Amino acid sequence: MTETDPRRRALVWLVPGLLAAVLGLLHVQRPALWADELATWGATTAPWPDLWGMLREADLVMAPYYVLMHLWVQVAGASEVALRLPSVAATTVAAGLLAVLGTRLATPRAGLLAGVLFALLPATSRYAQEARVYAFAVCAAVLATLLLLCALDRPGTGRRLAYAGAVAALGLAHPIGLLLLAAHGVAVVVTDRPQTAAWARSAALGAAAALPLAVAGYAGQRGQIGWIPPADGARLAAFPGELFDSTVVGGIVVALALLAVSWRPPALLPALWALAPAVALLVVSAVTPLWVPRYLLFTLPAWRCWPG
Fold this sequence. Notes:
The chain is mainly alpha-helical. The chain has one domain. It has helices spanning 6-25, 35-45, 48-57, 63-76, 80-105, 108-120, 122-128, 134-153, 157-173, 180-191, 196-221, 233-237, 239-244, 247-260, 268-285. Helix 1 runs antiparallel to helix 5 (80-105), helix 1 (6-25) crosses helix 7 and helix 9 (157-173) packs parallel to helix 11 (196-221). The two termini are 20 Å apart.
């Protein structure tokens, strides 16, 4: 088959997607819901008035996810499997999109490898099997990055609006995800400076849809993040293991990625995607402690999306 063979192009995204789906569904009914998932269960099975009342007191930034899951539960029920299936679906889509992204950055072979390795990471299947918002944030980050490339390759209002929509989805899934814009902005300035102003407008439009909820949540419910300790040396050293859900896997992946990193296109974008949000969160944490590795799960796909 040639590089342009339709069957080969389909396999590039289909194989990682199917692999992520199989691994996500494997033992998805075990273990029982843990504390955070029980919060999802409580919010999404409560009557609508009770949900709105709860959001006024706690978890306001989770409102979009809770509303989505509330609608889902009305159709699929509230069993462990039903609550986790949307995360499995989001992870499946993310793996397929990552393969497409890797293909655009380099070759179909690189895209296929990126998607497969992402699907095989322990953290990928773990959060695919968790009834929380993280899988949606990962999927939105991959989509936003892919749509950024599309908008840069063929500028147009429709593509820029699509990118803005993906940015909004990322911010609504998890406000910390908007730190991805730091990576996107630097990449645009370095690789396609004339489009910087157009990118900035699209990014601002997307962020504007998500920031009011984040600001309201921080202003009114700041105490909910009071448990987060300051970022010290020990917590930074533990970052790879916590991000990848395995100390050994995290250490190996981060080490290999850093050895292979290149600051030249097309490797620049995934390198910035992996590193810039972590650096930005560390800077923010100096003012308000927010250093929680799982908040950076939206960078997970970038640690293998190195062209080559």
